[in-house]
What we know:
Layout: E1 9-15, E2 20-27, E3 38-43, E4 46-48, E5 52-54, E6 57-64, E7 72-78, E8 82-90, E9 94-95, E10 101-104, E11 109-115, E12 121-128, E13 131-134, E14 144-150, E15 153-158, E16 167-175, E17 178-189, H1 196-235
Parallel strand pairs: 1-8, 10-17
Antiparallel strand pairs: 2-6, 3-4, 3-7, 5-6, 7-8, 9-11, 11-15, 12-13, 12-16, 14-15, 16-17
Amino acid sequence: LIIGVSGTALQKNVSVGSPAKVELTCKLDENSNLKNPQVTWKKGSETISHTSKTKNSWTIQLTISDASHLASYSCILKGEVEVSATFHLQVPKIEGKEKPIITYEGDLAVMVCKTEYAPMNWTWSMSNGTELVAINPSSDANKFRIKRQSANVNRLEILKLTKEDSGVYWCEAVFRLGNSKRRFELKVLSIFVPLKPFIAVVAEVVILVTTITLYEVYSKNKGEEGEREFDQIEQL
């Protein structure tokens, strides 16, 4: 729905995981001041014709049979002002945690991928320099577990973490029209890392108590020496 305000450029993502017929419609708001606009549809920079028109509504029908049909389709309305709307046809994106996963040695790390539509297959891999190494739980069941919680949710578990497990992991969903990837960053810290602040505080307390004790001993000794000197003066 296009309001018709000058400079408006609407954007909409449309997920298409498998071959399908797609209908895209631009409809001008009834209260818009833009009257009888000239309408142009484009695929990228290529002009294409719309297949149907009603009052203040323009539609194109597409047959998405392969990845070449996944593109940006725009309707451009020109009149007293120019407004547009763009549909980005793409394979479904993978949802997942964006921030680095921070955990400790010996713990369990969990990474979860989710898509809007069920892919044909899921794969997991780990970056090794410039290469990706596929993760195969069957060859190392004591280290990795992959669970397909549902058709569109996949889960990787890394067991008994060590510092060597730190790095970048990739989740990939395979669709008939293409693949979609998600990046995860894992940081494995030493178990002593969370103890460092506590150890630092304990060390400061020990130093402070030791300093106070030494000062008290020193003050006591000085006091005893002063009393002995006073006694000697009285005797004299």
